[in-house]
OsmC family protein
Amino acid sequence: MTNHITTTWLGNMKFESTNPSGHNLFMDAGAENGGNGEGYRPKALMLSSLAGCSGLDVASLIKKMKLEVDDFKIEIEANLTEEHPKYYDKVAMHFHFYGGNLNEKKLQKAVDLSIEKYCGVMEMFRQFSKLNIETHFHKK
């Protein structure tokens, strides 16, 4: 399967990018780099893609396993190299699950399946980053 996107310059430092979903997104540089901050930063968008890819896997597995989860979020901290081309060499990913009846074993299995088997964005990140992944359970 081939994905096709078109990214169009809207002037100054702003771009609009199509997506196979039909939803477009905007990218822009911050004021410190000559932009107006009217869109996502491209490298940070990669981190959102990583969280979204794995999050979709886990959400699907939560449904399939019929697990009780009140809330779920993924926090990412990534270190950007100093030299050009700058890239993320270290990425820490924290899965947070909230609820009164969390099945920690099954939720950990869902996270493990995503990071080891299903998430293609995770596999791409493995090519250039050292990944540290932790799961946190918050019982209400």
User: Anything to note?
Assistant: The chain has two domains: 1-40, 42-139. DSSP finds three helices and six strands in the chain. Strands lie at 7-9, 15-17, 25-27, 71-80, 88-99, 130-139. Residues 42-139 form a domain with the GMP Synthetase; Chain A, domain 3 fold (CATH 3.30.300.20).
